[in-house]
Protein: GNAT family N-acetyltransferase
Amino acid sequence: MIREATPDDLPAITALYGREVLTGTATFELEPPSLAEMTDRFEAVRARGLPWFVAEIDGAFAGYAYASPFRPRPAYRYGVEGSIYVEETARGHGVGRALLAALIDRARALGLRHIIGAISDSATSQASIGLHERLGFSRVGRYHQVGWKFDRWLDVQLMQLDLDPTGVPPKAPGIDLTGGLA
Ligand SMILES: CC(C)(COP(=O)(O)OP(=O)(O)OC[C@H]1O[C@@H](n2cnc3c(N)ncnc32)[C@H](O)[C@@H]1OP(=O)(O)O)[C@@H](O)C(=O)NCCC(=O)NCCS
Structure:
């Protein structure tokens, strides 16, 4: 089941993300953020009207996903970047797909125009790249050796989903980016 995240989910979210910071290459953070920091990030996302979802399996927390502004300058106000994290024990059962599909639906409903996935490319990123391709994202570029983590360089594979590839002018106002990003 996919639902809106609430502040009560933040301890589980912080724990899952912290494990990924310490053991994985999906994020380029090196120190796990505190619960207070994750609370600030959650509130910043929600303050912009962007989605933060939680997945549950039989009532148990199984993962989360959220959309954050793609870039801070206002012309970028129609794009978001997606972040998705699934509990290791729940992977391979469609949770990531359900979370990303929910983000796509919400972004479309908000009148946004594209979703970006910036995926660190390493031996363990095939699941993430596969997930994004499965939901229609295209590979649009690649940064070479821009991350240094676990004593090795990491590339970043950029992926993009266009929600209206015709390029007609947007009808919605986009994300309010005044004041910059937190
Ligand atoms: C990437 C991640 C979110 C995928 O979540 P998941 O719940 O395991 O993925 P799903 O079971 O929903 O799989 C959806 C699709 O992704 C692809 N996929 C999933 N695991 C895969 C793997 N190990 N290898 C290749 N493709 C894979 C498949 O196309 C799959 O579709 P299919 O089942 O119809 O073949 C999860 O592995 C994860 O949290 N990884 C660590 C954090 C991370 O990398 N996050 C993404 C960066 S923001």
Q: What stands out?
A: The pocket of coenzyme A is lined by residues 20, 24, 26, 83-86, 91-97, 119, 126-128, 130-131, 134 (CB under 6 Å). Residues 2-162 form a domain with the Aminopeptidase fold (CATH 3.40.630.30). The chain has a mean pLDDT of 95. The longest helix spans residues 95-109.
